Amino acid sequence: KAALFDVDGTLVDSMPRFYPSWNEAGKLHGGLSMSLDEFYAYGGWPLPEITRDLHRKCVGAEASDEFVAAYLATHKRLTGEHEAVVGPPPVIACTAAIAREWLARGVPVVAATSGLRCHVEAHLAAAGLGEVFPPEKIVTAADLPPGRGKPNPDIFQRAAALVGADAAECVAYEDAEAGFEAAYRAGCEVVDV
Fold it and tell me: Is residue 146 helix, strand or coil?
């Protein structure tokens, strides 16, 4: 009944663009850092959860809500500055074509992403997918109760409900382990991008 798409790493190749901003923000906030492999292992996680986990690993303590907010604000700013120089991330053409084809066939498409809405909307627009995924057809982890992002099924359930479908009647396109788990737990058919 619907096609549900992750965004970062599935529709746009944004993951390499985000990595430097995470570590640059970490230098400004208590020395948090991660390797490239660790960064990709966080794929699909909600950003506040990544920040909290990274803080536990690097500092050995729980991060306050204020720390998480400040860290993510810095990450958002640094990502914007970086993209002002290098441009937005490139579209992943094959997956974008699949989304367009579903829509052309009358099948609703919805984005289900852990990304920040401001980045998601800008990246989809720059990739020529703004009309395929208008703001009202995007569900982010921030739209869910705290702690209910991927790998929990909620984001795919909400994305399906947005178009009047049950997640078990949908196909989900994903690139990350947390996303696969979330989609499977929601009952979706899953395509590994």
Answer: coil
